[in-house]
């Protein structure tokens, strides 16, 4: 599993490098077609000391090195950013969940955990927004998504996001999906999911077997409002 995670992380970096290389190559082609740079260079005084071919290869080498440095640095920064988020601890706009559906104590899938995740997302939608990190426990310890992934039919991040989407649509509603973004990051060779939620433009409810529940964030907790409280909150939040 550790080797698989390292491989996945390497694949992401390589993919980003390839994309950057393609973009850079496209720009070089556009520049090459826009003018006869060799002829222009031959008219400069530098041509007597340095051939155009050497200058061209030197320029390409510098660009290649710059691309590698930028992509690798960005990957390192992304990991540091998610570390900083975790180290800040839970608060009104940040919550941690050990997993999406895998019960660590029972060592099995627990559907109630899925509801807990969607409850937090609903609360963020009804408040000032926030971020939910899945794969980290309440003590800021990174558990990872590996147990969740292993419990899915499609055992990768795409499968995780598909399952998250299905839960979201059935429990909250597709019209609110535009306010939610999910991304995956690696910390100590463990993957975690970062769910970023914007405040919705109208109230969001969590569907239940008996009807619907309304949740908001109060401090670092998710709170359910009574029917008598919902109308007052909605009028103050969405005017």
The amount of helix comes to: 40-55%
Helix-strand pattern, N to C?
HHHEEEHEHHEEEEEEH
The number of domains is 2
Describe the strand arrangement of the main beta sheet, using strand numbers.
1-4-6-5
Characterise this structure.
The protein folds into 2 domains: 2-87, no CATH class; 94-237, Methyltransferase, Cobalt-precorrin-4 Transmethylase, Domain 2 (2-Layer Sandwich), CATH 3.30.950. A hairpin with a 4-residue loop joins strand 7 (206-207) and strand 8 (212-213). With 239 residues, the protein is α+β, with helices and mostly antiparallel strands. The strands form 4 sheets. The chain has a 4-stranded mixed β-sheet with strand order 1-4-6-5. A two-stranded antiparallel sheet has the order 2-3. Strands 7-8 form a two-stranded antiparallel ribbon. It has 7 helices and 10 strands. Residues 90-224 form the Schlafen AlbA-2 domain. The chain crosses the membrane at residues 12-34, 46-73. Keywords: Membrane, Transmembrane, Transmembrane helix.
